[in-house]
Amino acid sequence: MTVRTWVSALVVAASLSAGSSLQAEDGWLKLFNGRDLSGWEHKGDGQFFVEEGQLIGTQTDGKGGNFYTLSEWSDFELRAVYKMDWPANSGFWYRFDPKTENGYQFDILKYTNPVAFSGTLYFPARMFIFANLDEATENRDDWNEAKIRAEGGKFTHWLNGKKIGEGEDAQLKSGRIGIQVHPGNDVKGMKITIKSLEIRPITAP
Fold first, then answer.
1. What is the pLDDT of residues 59-97, one digit of tens each?
2. Which residues are within 8 A (CB) of 175 and not within 5 positions of it... i.e. 6 or more apart?
């Protein structure tokens, strides 16, 4: 892990109030504290809010938006427990730049051309770096666990314990962690519910 990652983690922890401080367990840090939106900011339309201890993201009249951390991260493992209301097009951004809206994404979707399901690695400059071709990997009516490992230019995704794929790209070195609600009337009213969202920095050997 780079020095920048450690500095970013310390900055975000210091910026949160005592009532919403990040807690570490086995090296994992809670990016969402279950109470409020401390440590996050929003760009675009859509709505993001806390309800019954869960983080909710929804569309607004077919208009989407991005919700992302104040902190930046480079090398890490990320895990999230989420549930979707379908139809949907959402995902977890990482190494995300809110100014350009560019980054890598653990996609949550059902795509037909080319075929791709949730767990796919999306990157705007290359479309899909790798795709999940097995729709049954995801529980469409229940909770799912997404896991991401980003180390240097190598990326791995898992969904519900199944390894989806590995890919490489060297363009983005660090950035925010984010959540997308995609615009479009085809997924109008979509909703993502996140029960937990945790990150564990990868330290250099």
1. 988 899 999 999 999 999 999 999 999 999 999 999 999
2. 72, 73, 93, 94, 95, 96, 97, 103
